[in-house]
Write a structure and sequence with these properties.
Elements (H helix, E strand, L loop, with lengths): L3 E10 L24 H14 L2 E9 L9 H8 L6 E8 L7 H9 L4 E7 L4 H12 L4 E6 L10 E2 L11 H10 L1 H4 L5 E3 L3 E3 L2 H8 L10 E3 L6 H14 L20 E2 L6
Parallel strand pairs: 1-2, 1-7, 2-3, 3-4, 4-5
Antiparallel strand pairs: 6-10, 8-9
Length: 269
């Protein structure tokens, strides 16, 4: 049976040049992990594509700003060693870090299959325009999200709340999971920093920071010694199970249509 993941995210950096109050990665409140190395990236991708057949979109993202990674250009080249295993490679940036020439060259090399999402917060408009202009010249597809003033993308940001246990019932947990944008719209935003691949950021970030209990049933460890078939079964099982333990440690507002539960994006601490 073919196993395709809609999205797979490599968390290449957990550092950021902004200090956003509602950062969903809680980056300002925590010490960053070391940046992903070229060797780590290659090992994770080799393990991934030993276990799954295809990925629709491979993301290079972060619990921070990916353009801060000094070897992001090389990481992009490593991803494209698996060019026949995915449709698109997607990069994210807060538009506040000027891309290096090496990064621009790497994006240009792979522009036909690269999408770059630029979040514009209006914090440094001149720099944002400079970054946008530089990336336009690469020929990659750009997706610009406006997060300042009126009519913000998605109505602004949501507050994922604190990490306490909410003691939701099984039906309540299933409702949180089903109505989350990660489930409803993405069919999973599989993501990893260290090989442990989670369905969503709340699960991955909460467990790696020790803010919620580690639940091995909720992630696939690509680098452990379980078999290919066991990993494939676990990917399918997590997607079909109906909720995660992390759902009880989340506000449940991801994907809400209630604009009263959305806030001005990128308010700085």
């Amino acid at each position: 049976m073919n196993l395709t993941l809609g999205k797979f995210t490599l968390i290449v950096v957990t550092r950021c040049n902004l200090r956003c109050k509602l950062c969903c990665e809680y980056t300002p409140q925590h010490k960053p992990f070391p940046d992903m190395t070229i060797d780590e990236c290659r090992r994770i991708l080799a393990a991934l594509f030993d276990s799954v057949d295809y990925v629709t979109t491979t993301h290079l993202s972060g619990g921070g700003e990916p353009f801060l990674h000094p070897q992001l250009a090389e990481l992009i080249d490593v991803v494209f060693e698996y060019n026949d295993k995915f449709d698109k490679c997607m990069l994210f940036t807060n538009s506040a870090v000027k891309p290096s020439q090496a990064l621009l060259d790497a994006i240009t090399r792979h522009s036909d299959k690269t999408i770059i999402q630029l979040s514009r917060y209006g914090i440094n408009p001149e720099r944002e325009l400079e970054v946008l202009t530089a990336l336009e010249a690469t020929g990659a597809s750009l997706k610009v999200e406006k997060y300042y003033g009126d009519n913000q993308s998605f109505g602004g940001w949501v507050n994922f709340g604190d990490w306490q246990e909410r003691n939701r019932s099984t039906p309540e947990l299933a409702d949180v999971f089903a109505n989350c944008a990660v489930t409803r719209d993405m069919r999973g935003n599989w993501r990893t920093r260290d090989g442990k691949t989670h369905w969503c950021s709340r699960s991955q970030r909460g467990m790696e920071l020790g803010l919620i209990p580690d639940c091995s049933a909720d992630y696939v460890d690509l680098l452990d010694d379980t078999s290919r078939d066991e990993k494939r079964f676990k990917f399918a099982n997590i997607a079909a199970r109906g909720f995660l333990s992390a759902c009880d440690h989340c506000s449940g507002n991801q994907g809400t249509d209630d604009y009263g539960l959305r806030y001005q994006a990128a308010e700085q601490l």
